[in-house]
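Hey,

Quick one before I head out. I ran the complex with adenosine-5'-triphosphate overnight. Inputs first:
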Amino acid sequence: MWERTKGFILPSFAFVILLAVWQVTKIATGWSVAVFPSPLEAAAGMWELIKEGTLLKHSVASLFRVTLGFYLAVIFGLPLGILLGWWKTGQAITNSLIQFLRPISPLAWIPLAVLWFGIGDKPAVFLIFLSSFFPLVVATITAVNGIRSIYFQVAANFNFSAFETATKIIIPAILPPIMPALRISVGIAWLVVVAAEMIAVKSGLGFLILDSRNALRMDYVMDAMIAIGVIGICLDRVISQLSRIKSVSWGSV
Amino acid sequence: MGLGVAVGHILVENLHKWFVERRSASRIADENPGPAKGDRVFVLNDINLEIPDGELVCILGPSGCGKTTFVRIVAGFDTPTAGKVLTDGKPVNGPSSDNIFVFQHSGLLPWMTVRENVMLGLRRMKDRKLMAEKVQEYIDIVDLVGFEDHYPHQLSGGMQRRAELARALVVNPEILFMDEPFAGLDFLTRIKMREEVINMHEFIQKTIIFITHDIDEAMIMADRVVVFSDRPAVIKMDVKIPARHPRDFSCDPELEGLRRQVYTELGVHYAL
Ligand SMILES: Nc1ncnc2c1ncn2[C@@H]1O[C@H](COP(=O)(O)OP(=O)(O)OP(=O)(O)O)[C@@H](O)[C@H]1O
Ligand SMILES: [Mg+2]
């Protein structure tokens, strides 16, 4: 019973309070709907967006970009991180370079991304890729460096090939420490996609916000923000479910 | 030797080992009794030892004297600073699956179940059915039936040790290195595992190097007991124990004499 209370009822208190503050502020300021929509006005706008299918369309567009960019980052970032974690010379060579590139915000790449990839999905996907790639590489290198040396000795003792060492030692060993990094990367990717969609594309939740602002529909702006928050929570849940998988959960005890 | 069949003969000549301290010294110079950066930690001082094929040798010595270091070098996990180590007449270069090492601190792979861990040494076997049978047989020997699909973190410390023993024994290695394999086992399991190792050794006659802190355990199990001195370690005592198994100190004055001698060498008066 307490578990249920803790898991659902308590968090919803915070949202009720948020709604109350929102409504009170609206009444106190008396601002018009064009400046500050009330919760009810926002809900009405939300209903319109859902009914017309606009919200779904834009959400799918954003999710598609995030998924693609994130997968690309995983596909390139994890193997590169494993390689550099394993091969110390390579790590020494690239370490400063990675540390140099990492703090450059993906948003700083926007002009170049548009120039290189033109208009459409490509620059957005590229920016998301960049935003997830460096944190994942760094987290993977750290995770590989942290593997207990005894596991490599066991591998040597049982004559593991390089392939076996990678698949039976390194990958399973780094999965638990890498899960938080995946979670953070998805979060960053979701932050970046909204910004990326404010340039260069005609779909996605970021575009919806920009477009609604131009139309002075602040209720739609708020609705898009709500959608971003809700989907963000869902993405986080999906990734944190991954760490429940048996082969990943060995590290949790 | 050298007939194409691996043989567990070990020859160690003039083995020296020191570590160079990488950690930098403590700022407070006077309060730093430990080694400073660049200092040498002299661990093994001219060890000479020949172990014929099939002998069960127990190594005793004070804590930190270099037993683990010695065995790691013989097993190929570390290199000597000077001297040479030959197994089966060939210089050791790196670990080999002919010689399995049971680590002092758990060497089970935590992301694999007990069964998968025990299978490691047999994973290249063609006959999968025979492999599964052998794995089961050894899981049975170490009394882990019913825990095949458990992960190491779901087992007690003693059960983990037993799983690691099964993983080593199932390979039937030419040389078995055991670094305090029974540490953390309860008294009864310990006796049972001793018996298991002795029986296995009588049966297959493979070389076993066994590190322990337990003098009586060494006296009960070993064909030969080697006692290391404090660091830097030299061999202080090297005796063969001809008595047959099962051994009983109280009925064997010769064995009892040896036992007292080992206690004295290690600086304790066992009469206390
Ligand atoms: N990698 C290393 N670098 C520096 N010093 C080391 C290293 N490994 C071991 N030593 C030192 O070598 C000495 C011997 O260590 P070793 O582990 O061989 O002892 P041991 O006889 O196995 O002790 P115990 O019975 O407590 O397991 C210790 O003083 C230790 O500090
Ligand atoms: Mg030791």
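The first strand of chain B starts at residue 10 and ends at 20.

Talk tomorrow,
K.
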